[in-house]
Write a structure and sequence with these properties.
By secondary structure, the chain is an all-alpha fold. It contains four helices and no strands. Helix 1 runs antiparallel to helix 2.
Length: 75
Amino acid sequence: MEKLMEILKSLHPDVDFEKEEHLIDDAILDSMDIVSLVTELSDAFDVKITAKYMLPENFNSAKAIYALIERLSEE
């Protein structure tokens, strides 16, 4: 989770990613952020995030993103 938080903070240092649960719903992360995030997550965690996982609920919070990473790591 620490590495994920570093990646998120590099995108938006002003956001409290530990508390925020509406990153997509409140437009805190935009489409360009998601593209960057997916690239960084793929490199950092050795996972492949395909289009079928590009759902708002998978990116609305750090917890949701980390849960996605864990699911993909198990595949």
